Amino acid sequence: MSDDEPGAEGPESGSAPRPSGPPRRQPLPEAAPEPAAGLRPEAEQPPAELTGRQRLVKGLWPPRVTRAQLTVALLLFVLGLGLAIQVRSTNDTGALRGARQDDLVRILDELDDRTERLEDEKQRLEEQRTELENSSDQAEEARRQTVEKERQLGILAGNVAATGPGITVTVQDPGGTVRADMLLDAVQELRAAGAEAIQVNDVRVVAGTYLSDGAGGVNVDGNKITRPYRFKVIGNPQDLEPALNIPGGVVQTLEKEQATVVVTREEKIVVDALRPAEQPDYARSSNE
After folding, report:
1. How confident is the model at residue 47, as a pLDDT?
2. How many CB atoms lie within 10 A of CB 183?
3. How far apart are CA 209 and CA 199, in angstroms?
4. Whole-angstrom Cα distance, residue 203 to residue 225?
5. What backbone torsions phi and psi does residue 199 show, to the nearest 5 degrees?
6. Among 23, 65, 130, 264, which is 20 to 30 Å from 116 by CA?
């Protein structure tokens, strides 16, 4: 627009005078600097990459315990406990690993000597046990034999009753012609045939028994026995009966005196007449 065009403001309007000459260009606003190649604005940049230690710390803290981790921890604890026990149990043998050969040989010799002493002690104790068992058996056997011997002596002495097979002899003497010596012959024949216990009426016949004639009968050890005369004899019947019936024996002798003799075999004879046990005044057992 020229200065002569209408509407143009002149100097009178109070506006600032326009400079003469060609018009000055206004400077353009400065453009924002473009980012360098490969760079992005701050808002668009990705977060910085973490280091290995930072990732480890981030994975371990805060701790997150799962059931699998607890199971593994428990198994590791049990395994460690077992290893500790095994190591403790092998401490003694571990002490020998560093020992010298001479020390090991000495230890082995000591162990051999100790084993030998223990074997000797074991053998000695076994021998003592055997001796005790044998002595106990011997004592029991001696006691049994003593009891048996006492019973046998008691039967022979007439101190205990006796029972067993044998015979009974009944002598009927209505005329009173049987004398003491005839009955004594019968006792002797029975003893010779193996009689072990004899009883005449109510009197026990023993080794020291004697018979004598008395008024109205026979006396046995001073005890009068009346007719009929009954013998109870314990022994083998097959030996006792023939001993009385031999020709010229006791039965024939008594029958000649008009006596009647009956001999009967018995399966069980009881000889219960007893003689009091006499205690010696001076004699004592040699074992006392």
Report:
1. 58
2. 24
3. 11
4. 8
5. -135, 130
6. 130
pLDDT tens-digit readout, 198-244: 999 999 999 889 999 988 789 999 899 988 999 999 999 999 999 99
Model pLDDT for residues 8-58, shown as the tens digit of each residue = 444 444 444 555 555 555 555 554 455 544 445 554 555 566 677 777 777
Q: Which residues of 143-176 are buried (b: 16+ CB within 10 A; e: fewer)?
A: eeeeeeeeeeeebebbbbebebbbbebebebeee
| Cα–Cα distance for residue pair 204/156, rounded to 1 Å | 10
The two tokens of residue 170 are: 């009944």
Q: What are phi and psi of 281, to 5 degrees?
A: -85, -30
Give the bridge partners for 263, in sequence order: 169
Peptide bond into 228 cis (omega under 30): yes
Give me the residues paired with residue 211 across strands.
220
42: tokens are 């701050």
The pLDDT tens digits for 84-111 are 887 776 655 555 666 677 777 788 888 8
CA distance 82 to 74: 12
> Residue 229: exposed, middle, or buried by beta-carbon count in 10 A (0-12, 13-18, 19+)?
buried
In the sheet where 223-225 sits, what is the strand order? 211-214, 217-220, 223-225
